[in-house]
Amino acid sequence: MNINKKEMNQKAVAVMTSGGDAPGMNANVRAIVRTIINKGARAYCVMEGYEGLVKGGPEYIKECNWEFVRGWLSEGGTNIGTARCMEFKQREGRLTACKNLIDAGIDALIVCGGDGSLTGADLFRSEWPSLIKELLDTNQITSELYERYKHLNICGTVGSIDNDMSTTDATIGAYSALDRICTAIDYIEATAYSHSRAFVVEVMGRNCGWLALMAGIATSADYIFIPEKPAQTNSWEDQMSEIVTRHRANGKRTTIVIVAEGAIDNNLNPITCDDVHKVLSNRLKLDTRITILGHVQRGGTAVAYDRILSTLQGVEAVNAILESTPETPSPLIAVNENKITRKPLMESVALTKSVADAIAAKDFDKAMSLRDVEFKEHLNNFMAINSSDKVLPKEITDKGLNIGIINIGAPAGGMNSAVYSITTYCMSQGHNALAIHNGFTGLVRHDSVHALSWKQLIGWQSKGGSEIGTNRHTASEAGIEEVAAMFQKHKFDGLVIIGGFEALVSLQELQEARKDYLAFRIPMVLIPATLSNNVPGTEYSLGSDTALNSLMQYCDIIKQSASSTRARAFVVEVQGGNSGYLTTLASLACGAQISYVPEEGNISILQLEKDIQNLKESFKNAKGRDRFGKLVLKATNASLKTWDSHTLAKVLTEEAKGAFDAKAAIPGHVQQGGLPSPIDRTRGTRLAIKAVNFLEEFSKNNASKNEVASALLDAKLGKTEYIESNDALDSLIETAAVLGTQGSHLKFTSVKKIYETDSDLIKRMPKDIHWTHIRNIADELVGRERV
Ligand SMILES: Nc1ncnc2c1ncn2[C@@H]1O[C@H](COP(=O)(O)OP(=O)(O)OP(=O)(O)O)[C@@H](O)[C@H]1O
Ligand SMILES: O=P(O)(O)OC[C@H]1O[C@](O)(CO)[C@@H](O)[C@@H]1O
Ligand SMILES: [Mg+2]
Hints:
Layout: E1 12-17, H1 25-38, E2 42-46, H2 49-55, E3 61-63, H3 91-104, E4 108-113, H4 115-137, H5 143-148, E5 153-158, H6 174-195, E6 198-203, H7 210-218, E7 223-225, H8 236-249, E8 255-260, H9 273-283, E9 288-292, H10 304-323, E10 331-336, E11 339-344, H11 345-360, H12 364-370, H13 373-386, E12 402-408, H14 415-429, E13 432-436, H15 439-446, E14 449-451, H16 475-478, H17 480-489, E15 494-499, H18 501-512, E16 524-528, H19 544-565, E17 568-574, H20 581-590, E18 594-596, H21 605-622, E19 629-635, H22 645-656, E20 661-665, H23 678-700, H24 703-716, H25 726-730, E21 736-742, E22 745-750, H26 751-758, E23 759-760, E24 765-766, H27 772-782
Parallel strand pairs: 1-2, 1-4, 4-5, 5-10, 6-8, 6-9, 7-8, 12-13, 12-15, 15-16, 16-21, 17-19, 17-20, 18-19
Antiparallel strand pairs: 2-3, 10-11, 13-14, 21-22, 23-24
Helix pairs in contact: 1-10, 2-3, 3-4, 4-11, 6-7, 7-13, 7-23, 10-20, 11-12, 13-14, 14-23, 19-20, 20-27
């Protein structure tokens, strides 16, 4: 299309995908195209990555409309194609690309790709003035076009499964690839167990060990090889053999070793699966197989995290590019501490390159320091847990702490991961972890406190539900006095509670009861875990990602059915108590047309009318075209007394007057489960270790309890009169805390503050909702109008 035919004042923005495809790229393109249209600009897709730019013409630089990207949220790969294009690496190729963009009338370009693609994009932008000048000087463009297109604005979104881009915490596709890897390793475990075999699993990551490390934690692999941190000793063979032999001796029937594609030893020699295989089979005499996961890792639909990340980043990319001036440095859309941010593209690219340089210079400390803080923390955690069986319970010394672990509330993905990680980490530090089975009622009725053995815990990282059992009874419901007696009997020095709102209430009850019971004067910490994600003091509760993915898979299936039937909408009823978190995130991840949440009050008749009207119109306009079905997500507690999902579906059908029909679909407790997602597994481990560190820190100076105990004894013996000051109790307040996730940081806040200041106790909700902005974006991307 020629620019002269267009309105000169309407901007044209193009999007392309480049490098290795990554799940979530389609969602990114969908969000970009629709946001461009919503902003009144023209949307274009460049087909086949930089190859399409070099080839040019309307076949490769295509104008596209709203419908073009329909249904893309749930599709893997990239529908607009990608390539590794050698011509673009040459100036000649970029000159042609420049001409093609001008011919197509493109003002700005958004590139979704990995470090290579964004390096190319950065170079293209910096070279643009000289490229366009050359086109003018060689009479390939007019001076009018030269003036109009003198500046090209570029923006990057990072799509790569490798998670190897500096300045962003996650790249689009990385968590989906991690999901594929964990699923594959879970499968491999079963066959490995049957034959008592060892498996060497190669995962992708040419220059980055993120996938290998995270998969190592999420599947509790025996050993991992990553490029950033080769074994410090000269012999990785000895180190790996020692660990694998010990794990076997302690009762493990399987051995899983994960090798990143780019694994090297400390002399920069590549370590291959064959090298590892030789050691395991020749030296350790293990029946060993190699599995190279290859491109399976890039396949399939994106996990919820990637759909949401790529959608939010797509919206931000369009905002950034439309706000850009010729002077603005090209932005890269990143995610930092769970917030979508803009970073200077050039700096991010340079920093990324410096990791590779540091590795090449054998400066592994520098390479590690250039990765984000979480990477280092995860690696330390992996190593600590991995060596936990060095200290078996019989060796636990007096210095070790007795740490109680309890699950409270509904089961949530990651609960087992947390219990597993607390226990194994305690073993590695010489503490005695004691699992309290079946909540507080289990404790008082059956004295169900057991030390879990290392062998018993094998495989827990990958298990759904709660292996130690959980229920909703709070400490006071079970009986505070009885609970205290049990705490005293088992000499708990610290407690980790894993659960949702009931767990928060229980922790507050225990902390309040400290004035009456010395047994509760120990450090106690809550790891929030509930699919509702309604615990105050944290942005994230374990289990909510697992639930979101279960719900998303369910919605994808339902939507497929609706799309096949053509004129159908489904009303999906979503759990979450008074929290609309799950409903809102699922509506963004699945492209639901409408969602109703308790936070917005009762469903208003006016809004309902408008929603029905819009649904009717869009079904009529679709005229039975393919892939047209709609989802309505209703949180159970949205207008609970008036609307259940069946009634809502009936009303929709009646009001549609033949334009479509609606049916209710209730996933129910499916949402609680299945296998825990890799996010819940790895976060479970991170939270667990932080929680134990908290107990260790406060136990060290837990003088108060001992002082009070001896003062009380003296009083009993008639030596003194004992009157306790409030100060003594106040000094303990900080030692009963909620471990919250805020951005990528973990933060402890006293349960007293959270309970008394931050909680809406009637609704069982935090007073502050941190995700409301997502609702507007979800609406905008499906064209839902609000009354
Ligand atoms: N230095 C460069 N100059 C110009 N173009 C480049 C440069 N590096 C890469 N590109 C372009 O970007 C394309 C993709 O780069 P690359 O193959 O490194 O993948 P990537 O974007 O890093 O993605 P991933 O690593 O996730 O597969 C290249 O084929 C090339 O067209
Ligand atoms: O699909 P290709 O071109 O073989 O590339 C494979 C590479 O792409 C990635 O998947 C993404 O960079 C790497 O992990 C892997 O080394
Ligand atoms: Mg790359």
